[in-house]
Request: fold
Amino acid sequence: MTTTTPALVSYDDAVRRYDPVIGIEVHVELGTRTKMFCPAEQSFGAEPNTQTTPVSLGLPGALPVVNGTAVEYAIRIGLALNCQIAESCRFARKNYFYPDVPKNFQTSQYDEPIAYEGWLDVELEDGTVHRVEIERAHMEEDAGKNTHVGGSAGRIHGAEYSLVDYNRAGVPLVEIVTKPITGAGERAPEVARAYVQALRDIFRVLDVSEARMERGNVRADVNLSLRATPDSPLGTRTETKNVNSFRSVERAVRYEISRQAAILDAGETVIQETRHFHEEDGSTSPGRVKSDAEDYRYFPEPDLVPVAPSREWVEEIRATLPELPQARRRRLHDEWGFADAEMRDVVNAGALDLIEATVAAGATPAAARKWWMGELARRAKQDEVELADLAITPAQIGELQRLVDSGRINDKIARQVLDGVLAGEGDPEAVVVARGLEVVSDDGPLLEAIDAALAAQPDIVEKVRGGNQGPVGAIIGAVMKATKGQADAKRVRELVLERIG
Amino acid sequence: MSTISRDEVARVAALARIDLRDDEVDRLAGELDVIVDSIARVREVATPDVPATSHPLPLTNVFREDVPQPALPVADVLAAAPDAQDGRFAVPQILGEE
Amino acid sequence: MTDLTRLSAAELAETLARKEASSVEATRAHLDRIAAVDGDVHAFLHVSSDDALATAADVDARRAAGEELHPLAGVPIAVKDVVVTKGLPSTAGSKILEGWIPPYDATLVEKIRAAGLPILGKTNMDEFAMGSSTEHSAFGNTHNPWDLDRIPGGSGGGSAAAVAAFEAPLAIGTDTGGSIRQPGAVTGTVGVKPTYGGVSRYGLIAMASSLDQAGPVTRTVLDSALLHELIGGHDPRDSTSIPEPLPPLVEAARQGALGDLSGLKVGVVTQLQGEGYQPGVLARFHESLELLTKAGAEVVEVSCPSFDYALAAYYLIMPAEASSNLAKFDGMRFGLRVEPTDGPVTAERVMAATRGAGFGDEVKRRVVLGTYALSAGYYDAYYGSAQKVRTLIQRDFDAAFAQADVLVSPTAPTTAFKLGEKLDDPLAMYLNDVATIPANLAGVPGISVPNGLSDDGLPVGFQILAPAKADDRLYRVGAALESALESTWGAPLLDSAPRLG
Reply:
């Protein structure tokens, strides 16, 4: 299939001359034990079609029953996003034919979502905060999975047939829809990315989902339109699907801005369509043109009765909400007293949890930050892994710092101990003992080493006695060398001066 | 007075994924016309002040505990499949993307 | 030896309990009867002899061992083919499900099996319960045992005919707009539509989810009460299932049979008589009112003006819900699959070809009508408006039940018409349900009790309606009427039916 590569305007140019408006729809799979409307277990990686009941298979005669825990999770999400929780809401049928939708309708919510009118303040890497308004969050069920067989590269077009697995059919989803996100300007791609990331963090803290984008637990559809100025009416928007990572969210927005700018520059109209994102090169291409123009014929689901969460129940749930990521960051920032830039670096490096745990293990915030953002960050970069994946724990860093603080080892030796722990030799204490790295605290061996050093450099004694303390450093250096660095330099100096007299 | 045209019937049949022969479309257009005419009288009494009822019984909050029950055995799931392969339903090629 | 097939279910149950006959004998007797007459009646689509005899043998063994059994244990039953039965074909009268063997049982079937009732087989019906004559079955007509050239009513003509022909003492039907009651009226049998939610819909192949109800089809009022108590009750697998237990129905039937209705107010609905109702039907109706008065009831006239719109509302709501419920029949997972012979074989085209070939004319008519009523731009005018009429009908019922304890009308406007007579005029066919439909829209229960023969020698029925959840009133009044009628006739009505076979 030949496609003409569309013209693109450079991003910077496009964003200077047009005002982007974005909209993001995020679907999150809830981590309940069973499906939304039937008691089939849901888990990752099961053999095909081993997790269905007549309900999730869409067999004739089967009826849905709402998973109460899924409703609770949906309310949790709504509250975390500062939404109103509906006093009464209903499910609706979204009717369309597709082999991965066993009933050929999806049970969802249409004009009565469980949560609506919320917001989320999203923090960008440089500290700028952008408030994203949330239109609604509603409950629905997931579809099964089609695997396309034959044709080119497993993509649908040109496939000979498809194999369908209904394990995922019926898994509970919450769909979160933003209002048009305006005023982000050239930072729109960052805002989009940060928003999805912030949602992901919230889902994890709320414990409503494993929230791994690479596993498809969190899916984002990115909408974008351009207008001449912030005062112009909204332009025609496109929707880009198959955006599978935070980075892709950002890239998809950037690409669409460039592409749409080129179209508008040429005096043409942007086609309202669904587009597909390509990981390989960050581009988007048109999806299938839907002939039905999406007449979903929504009507209230007659097999289910309304969900009317009492205000008592909502407050009960609100009371059990954990501290949300942003509030937690602010609190830790206050407690730790880091500068704004330092805190941002910590957050961006993914070191927040690690530092918090290290502080809990007894280290000061400053010491914790020194290790994680210093030596360990260097190691992580060198080994090309995430900080959290290094073979050392916050508890071990706490122990290491205690060893330094107590004087049993010094900073330089601590680095060797670190090596030992990362190499799998055990806890810091064990490495110190095994490698014999403990700082010599007994004066005896120190004096021996001092005497030997003085004997080797007799002229220094004369110089020091003569009033020049400088050469003492050479003796200290020799002693440190003799003790393989395992000496407290300060104590050595004291003893040398005593010895010399 | 024709309220449902032949084209309309064809459009709706496509939406409902039902192949109709030409003569079926013609016949349906005529029949549905008559039916729609007569049932359109509901509009006479369906004034804005009357709320809609979607359920005969005023039940709310019917929930299920999040406790797994045994799934259908795979053999049962696939038993009636017109075509199956590798434990999955084999269906003809699907056009387009979704 | 008593002809076991001429006994009512209650009489047969007693015979079995007294061990005067075995369940195997009773089941065999009915299977023999089916073999003798069903060639003419064609009530059955599938006869499950082995299954039935196995159940019967098991019940006999348990009875012999002194086990306590359900009152109806060992009494054979027929089940309308719209009810899903594990291991037995369930076609819903449609080619699209020809040969489909469900992997699960409907809840009501589980109850029947648990109580030990041998299932004789599955009965014929209008395809997907859409019809009033069973002429829309894909598998041929069922013939009215009173006159084999006439319709047995619909959609549950098979169950009614089976019971009327003494092929089964009990049968299960479903009623969405009168499909139990109207066949009852035209075959001289008893048919009950329970309060919506009174009997689980789990396992009923859905037509209109907010209207469907399963119910008993029998020859006596007491038999219906016994069967209703067996199959009714809360089901956690049906979200629309009434949480409270059934009122005592059998007790109400026994009480009613004593014939004292003093204190009872009977409301005659103005809109459910008059034009369109055959003179014979009306004559029998008025005679029955006389009998009720003689039994001590007070007859009043009530007006329910919105009932004039009930048919119209029904023929919008029902096709709309059905169009969505029938979307699952697409040849992908079960049932018929037809590939188009011209052009590419894609999922979309296979779905359309399958449904085009697998659905009959009436189903196509209603699915297209329903799809139209829900489609964009038409929802408010059609489906939305119809749901408002529903509110008005409920209000009229509420007001009427403030004036009377039960409401009454002729069950159907005419006696059984000839096969083929109304096939070309869908609207004329729909008018058969004009008296039964209001109850489905409001969810209130109704019973049809045979109350005589019309001038043409064909049976007519007397309909009694009660407030939601007051199903016991149906049985009290129904039993009283039945008792009074049989006194005047000297024998049950069906004794005057022509001898078959």
